[in-house]
């Protein structure tokens, strides 16, 4: 896989993409040499996987000992000898841990309740950092082993690595901030502005688009400017994104519907199977927690789930030997017999989710959608693909499934995102704004209704609290360079040190009110996205103002500070600046964006 243009940088550089998935993770890289067209390569050899060719991923698993020390990671954690030692020494396994970073704004508590807990005294940031350390070690070893003069090559580019971290579509700035913190903790980059700038984020949906442009995005899917829905069916999540090509001469795409993320990936099939078996085997000699967990693992990893094809046929879960039997519960010769109709119910929630998600994208899209491309390991199952196809084909949707190394699609696509950057327009997922104080209007019924929320400002004006100022409405197409500006004023009775700093909150509204205006209407659907911290306002002009005195007393002087907050929502990560006028010329300064940490994540 090659990028389309030569690298124009002044010196050699390495780009590493980490696809940190729920159950499996992968790595791709590209060495950038000035004047050369970069090649995108996957890491295909990992510890404990021997010399198996074409292995693109390792299990996202870590074993910790009782002191919290990492003892086994990735494929090593699947070794039978590790299982034995882990049981003997009471090691703790961390898996599915990346889902602890998830956004908690959805209504999928049944799924979320089944996420394994984090190891005691470990935060999700610390566990993620430990896994990133391992991924970097794997990448370093592979690059040194497979390139000429590998050791000297790695030494020359180690401090010039740019990392691209992919994540589910549903993640926002808070999750990105935690991933960046984990990268710093893992010593991928230093805790400095320049270190932070060496990390980029991309959604899994957008990474898959970049991969498909080179590997299987047919011309018919993007003809006449029609849109295409990319459904990434992973283990933990189903990520749905929609794009359309702009023009015909260059590979430039626009997002045409807000991307969505659902917690109904293939791991949910395992969850539904476990719930069924707990009930079905209750009273059986195999109904204890340990045996059920083993049977579920065999269902998930061996033949039953991966090879499920025909619901009309009896299904078998091979989990033991010839002596394992309980005829009253359909267990014979180490096999559990299940009716195909029961197994279907494990798959149905995910299949229904895919179908409904595609229809929702079509309803919201800014352009017609004619094609659906299914990628990811879950829809590699023929029966799953056929059921989705049966549901969507009557809606005049052309459903297809490319067959090109899907195991490396996200990590390869993340590198292409960094090099080629084909998407320049994105769609807002929620309504963004902030709460502010506005002038009180005695003739406005809504203001009169909220008269108890009024106050008198330093300048002597009556104002009303908690009005929601919409900065960017939901489902709006936004270009990467498009700026959203809001003007703000701060008033002070006297010059004090506190005017040197200021904070500005960005809030999200996730409800159904078309034009949200007040905090007390559908209040439960507002959530704070972030706090923008303006580090030093002392350079801004602090202007004296006067308000009329009371009862004939002289005018009272106060100070007014005026500035603009400039926001860019069209990038894969929110950017913010503070702007002001200095003798008629606009000046700008970068800001610091802070995300609140959900205490339930720690």
What's the structural blueprint in terms of helices and strands?
Blueprint: E1 13-20, E2 24-32, E3 41-42, E4 57-59, E5 61-64, E6 70-73, H1 80-89, E7 92-95, H2 109-112, H3 124-146, H4 150-157, E8 161-167, H5 173-185, H6 193-196, E9 199-203, H7 204-214, E10 227-233, E11 238-245, E12 253-262, H8 266-280, H9 289-301, E13 315-318, E14 331-332, E15 335-338, H10 340-364, E16 369-375, H11 382-392, E17 398-400, H12 409-420, E18 423-427, E19 431-439, H13 445-449, E20 454-456, E21 462-472, E22 477-479, E23 484-492, E24 502-509, E25 526-534, E26 542-547, E27 556-568, E28 575-582, E29 585-590, E30 592-594
Parallel strand pairs: 1-8, 8-9, 10-16, 12-18, 16-17
Antiparallel strand pairs: 1-2, 2-3, 2-4, 5-6, 5-7, 10-11, 11-12, 13-15, 14-15, 18-22, 19-21, 19-24, 20-21, 23-27, 24-25, 25-30, 26-27, 27-28, 28-29
Helix pairs in contact: 3-4, 3-5, 7-12, 8-9, 8-10, 10-11
InterPro entries: ATPase_NBD (IPR043129)
Protein name: Heat shock 70 kDa protein 12A
Organism: Agrocybe pediades
């Amino acid at each position: 896989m090659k990028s389309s243009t030569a690298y124009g940088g002044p010196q050699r550089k390495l780009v590493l993409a980490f696809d940190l998935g729920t159950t499996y993770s992968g790595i791709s890289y590209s060495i950038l040499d000035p004047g050369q067209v970069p090649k995108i390569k996957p890491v295909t050899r990992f510890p404990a996987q021997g010399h198996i060719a074409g292995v693109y991923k390792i299990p996202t698993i870590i074993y910790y000992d009782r002191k919290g020390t990492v003892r086994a990671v990735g494929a090593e954690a699947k070794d039978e000898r590790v299982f034995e030692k882990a049981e003997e020494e009471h090691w703790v396994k961390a898996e599915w841990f990346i889902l602890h970073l998830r956004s908690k704004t959805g209504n999928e508590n049944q799924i979320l309740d089944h996420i394994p807990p984090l190891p005691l005294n470990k935060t999700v940031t610390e566990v993620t950092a430990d896994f990133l350390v391992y991924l970097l070690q794997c990448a370093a070893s592979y690059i040194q082993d497979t390139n000429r003069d590998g050791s000297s090559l790695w030494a020359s580019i180690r401090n010039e690595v740019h990392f691209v971290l992919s994540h589910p579509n549903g993640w926002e700035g808070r999750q990105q901030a935690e991933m960046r913190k984990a990268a710093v903790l893992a010593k991928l980059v230093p805790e400095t502005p320049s270190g932070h700038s060496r990390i980029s984020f991309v959604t899994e949906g957008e990474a898959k688009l970049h991969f498909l442009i080179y590997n299987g995005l047919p011309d018919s899917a993007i003809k006449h400017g029609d849109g295409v829905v990319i459904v990434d069916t992973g283990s933990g999540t189903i990520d749905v994104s929609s794009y359309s090509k702009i023009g015909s001469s260059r590979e430039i795409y626009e997002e045409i519907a807000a991307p969505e993320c659902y917690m109904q990936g293939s791991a949910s099939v395992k969850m539904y199977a476990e719930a069924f078996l707990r009930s079905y085997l209750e009273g059986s000699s195999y109904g204890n927690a340990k045996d059920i967990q083993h049977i579920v693992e065999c269902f998930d990893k061996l033949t039953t789930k991966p090879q499920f094809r025909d619901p009309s046929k009896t299904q078998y879960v091979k989990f033991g030997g010839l002596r394992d039997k309980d005829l009253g519960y359909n267990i014979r010769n180490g096999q559990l017999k299940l009716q195909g109709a029961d197994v279907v119910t494990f798959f149905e929630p995910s299949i229904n989710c895919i179908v409904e998600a595609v229809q929702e994208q079509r309803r919201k899209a800014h352009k017609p959608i004619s094609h659906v491309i299914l990628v990811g390991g879950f829809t590699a199952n023929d029966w799953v693909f056929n059921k989705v196809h049966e549901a969507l084909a009557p809606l005049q949707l052309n459903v297809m499934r490319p067959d090109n190394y899907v195991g490396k699609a996200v990590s390869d696509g993340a590198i292409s995102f960094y090099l080629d950057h084909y998407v320049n327009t994105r769609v807002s997922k929620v309504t963004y704004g902030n709460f502010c104080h506005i002038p009180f209007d005695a003739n406005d019924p809504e203001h009169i209704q909220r008269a108890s929320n009024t106050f008198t400002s330093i300048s002597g004006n009556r104002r009303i609290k908690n009005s929601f100022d919409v900065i960017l409405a939901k489902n709006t197409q936004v270009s990467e360079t498009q700026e959203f500006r809001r003007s703000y004023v701060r008033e002070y009775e006297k010059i004090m040190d506190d005017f040197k700093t200021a904070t500005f909150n960005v809030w999200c509204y996730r409800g159904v009110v078309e034009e949200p205006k007040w905090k007390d209407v559908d209040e439960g659907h507002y959530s704070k996205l972030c706090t923008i911290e303006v580090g030093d306002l002392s350079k801004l002009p602090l202007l004296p103002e006067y308000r009329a005195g009371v009862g004939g007393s002289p005018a009272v002087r106060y100070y007014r500070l005026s500035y603009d907050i400039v926001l860019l929502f069209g990038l894969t990560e929110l950017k913010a600046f503070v702007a002001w006028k200095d003798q008629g010329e606009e000046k700008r300064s970068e800001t610091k964006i802070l995300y609140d940490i959900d205490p339930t994540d720690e």
